[in-house]
Design goal:
Layout: H1 4-7, E1 13-17, H2 22-34, E2 39-40, E3 43-44, H3 47-60, E4 64-66, E5 69-70, E6 73-76, E7 83-93, E8 103-112, H4 116-130, H5 133-141, H6 145-154, H7 182-191
Helix pairs in contact: 2-3
Length: 199
């Protein structure tokens, strides 16, 4: 499993940053993440390329997972390795969250398109961490990048845990079964811009 503290280095963390809106924030975070020099198919991704990929995914569906947290992300063809940045916001921003709460904690993630499980594992880990009110309060209250990183490391996120679909699922969601007609499955995939499903 990939663990957040291994992805988020000190230069990829910001605390209490401000932005005019969600799109302005994603532009700022894309610029921040470009400093990590992510490479896809042997070429470095600049801030514009990162923003375009993340924005395309965000326009399909909000990355807000509730409780003031968001996980904007994109899967990139040929990406050499996953990378992420983490920020707390002041003031919080409207992400169109399912619970209506403005977002104050954002983790921006890029992962290889060829390895979708990486995206899900990192998202599930962040979602698990942020599901705890005490952890959210600690992240929000961190007064410096060093303090925020220290908090993440103290949470021992490198410990193996059971990650379940419910950690990252957001309503609406649907169940399918072995006897679900294929036409129904394809209709759901098309209606909700889904790339895959499981039984």
């Amino acid at each position: 499993m990939i663990y957040l503290p291994k992805l988020v280095t000190p230069d990829l963390v910001r605390v209490h940053i401000s932005a005019p809106d969600k799109w302005g924030l994603l532009e700022t975070l894309s610029t921040l993440l470009s400093a990590a020099a992510p490479a896809a198919n042997g070429r470095l991704l600049d801030a514009a390329a990162i923003l375009a990929a993340v924005r395309a995914r965000e326009e399909i569906r909000t990355s807000a997972i509730g409780h003031g947290c968001a996980l904007p992300h994109a899967r990139i063809e040929g990406l050499a390795a996953p990378c992420a940045c983490l920020a707390t916001l002041s003031p919080a921003l409207d992400f169109g969250a399912p619970d209506g709460e403005p977002v104050s904690i954002v983790c921006l993630l890029l992962a290889p398109a060829e390895d979708p499980s990486t995206t899900l594992k990192v998202m599930a880990e962040v979602a698990l961490l942020m599901a705890d009110p005490a952890t959210r309060a600690g992240v929000d209250a961190a007064h410096s990048e060093e303090a925020l990183l220290a908090l993440l490391r103290d949470l021992n996120t490198g410990e193996e845990r059971a990650l379940r679909a419910r950690n990252i699922m957001r309503a609406p969601y649907y169940s399918i079964y072995p006897d679900t007609p294929l036409t129904r499955v394809t209709d759901l995939l098309a209606e909700y811009n889904l790339e895959a499903t499981s039984v």
